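Provenance

Sequences were taken from public entries as deposited. Structures were produced by running a predictor on each sequence independently, with no templates supplied. The record for Acyl-CoA synthetase (AMP-forming)/AMP-acid ligase II from Mycolicibacterium chubuense is shown for reference.
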Amino acid sequence: MLLASLNPAAVAAGADVADAVRIDGVTWSRSDLVGAATSVAERVGGAARVAVLARPTAATVLGVVGALIAGVPVVPVPADVGVAERRHILSDSGAQAWLGEVPEYTDGLPHVPVRLHARSWHRYPEPSPDATALVVYTSGTTGLPKGVLISRRAIAANIDMLAEAWQWSADDTLVHGLPLYHVHGLVLGLLGSLRIGNRFVHTGKPTPHAYAHAVTELGGSLLFGVPTVWSRVVEDGDAARALAPARLLVSGSAPLPVPVFDGLARLSGHQAIERYGSTESLITLSTSAAGERRPGWVGLPLRGVRTRLVGEDGADVAHDGETIGRLHVTSPTLFDGYLNRPDATAEVLGADGWYRTGDVAVVDAGGMHRIVGRESVDLIKSGGFRIGAGEIETVLLGHPGVREAAVVGAPDEDLGQRIVAFVVGDAVPDALIEHVGQQLSAHKRPREVRIVDALPRNAMGKVLKKELQQWV
Ligand code: MLC
Ligand code: AMP
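Predicted structure for Acyl-CoA synthetase (AMP-forming)/AMP-acid ligase II:
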């Protein structure tokens, strides 16, 4: 069973926990969560797919868990989504209803509210492990985000692999304040907790104070964050020291800077676990609770994962800790393709079952991996969010005051990278930032728009992004 701790028979037999899930001021016991989510399942059963506006609320938890109990794939929609992105996600995914919170614009879809106090004790058969659990939209270098088909089998396998690596057990209290529309917060954080049976605390925003409070007041033991979260914890100092009683601090979704790793170790006494993955592959590499944690390195393949480092000529490169190659992975956790996009799927997922991650890495003789960067400058990671330069450029070009646009990721101490747009035209920068937020998501807004006379281009007319990065 995917959400093993929610097995109704076991819960009815007494396997209950009074504070299984805490989110947005609501605390669910495990039996209340089973009863309420099953009542949601009864209302969506038979739907092909449902959209959930994934704000960090109890309604989102019920919507996701209820749909999973009924075997209905969930399309998590970013909490801060804009018009164009929302329309694309709804039409591309074929979602038949909004489940959970009422979005501001329903785009003509029916809305199925969830009732926090309703209960049902109906028993649903466990859906096939091959069935799609989630369709998570994620950015490519160009175009609108693609729907990644994630099976129930992949999620279950990933959580079990991580449980082994991190000695993650029902005794843990997992804490995070990350979005519930991406793998990190949703799959690992929420679904992981409901599979393992540990207590789950969502802090709302992942502020240093909230993390410290969750450890000191709620017994938080296993803490998840993107590097921006950990860097802000270190900046705070007191918050970092307050994390000392925790068991494990885990960082992922973007590179954890070495000074942040060192700062956490100095202040909290914890060497953070670093793990690496993607929406398409789930988490494939990690350091472990019992093994070496090396700043700047993301660890070893999890059980069942194999990796290859491929050189320019297509041959494997040496595992000498220095030679850089393209990272390919194969794993029981890989996605089942991009929804409606066999072309895009074939570009990254070979018939041989290897996923071309788009990241470049080195591996040392002991199998430890270091992520060196991405193959494409057009995939930006900002605050742990994956953002395509192309989708922002397309939206900018849709503004009447923009003739040409090019977007780059500039190095940023807090966010890893920050989005900077170079524009030829007569638009006002703030209006363009606002325009992107309205069309895409708030977190895809450029931090900075620079109006320039011309973009640097090569003889073929292609924008020289590497050169633009020097202009920042
Ligand atoms: C942001 N702001 C802007 C702006 N961008 N204002 C004007 N113009 C812009 N361009 C505003 C925000 O709205 C906010 O306002 C304030 O500035 C601070 O914004 P911020 O710097 O972005 O910080 P914050 O909102 O606190 O967000 C930081 C963060 C967030 C770390 C909480 O980036 C985050 O949740 N990241 C997690 C992403 C994630 O989960 N990725 C996992 C992908 S899965 P105000 O008013 O709100 O303060 C994956 C697989 C794997 O990668 O391996 O895990
Ligand atoms: P996403 O699809 O949002 O899941 O983003 C996946 C990408 O995030 C990966 O392909 C990497 O580029 C990056 N990433 C995730 N974890 C790490 C990490 N620990 N170190 C470096 N990059 C990471």
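The mean pLDDT is 97.
Residues 138, 183, 252-255, 274, 276-279, 298, 357-359, 371, 374, 381, 386 surround adenosine monophosphate (ligand 2) (CB under 6 Å).
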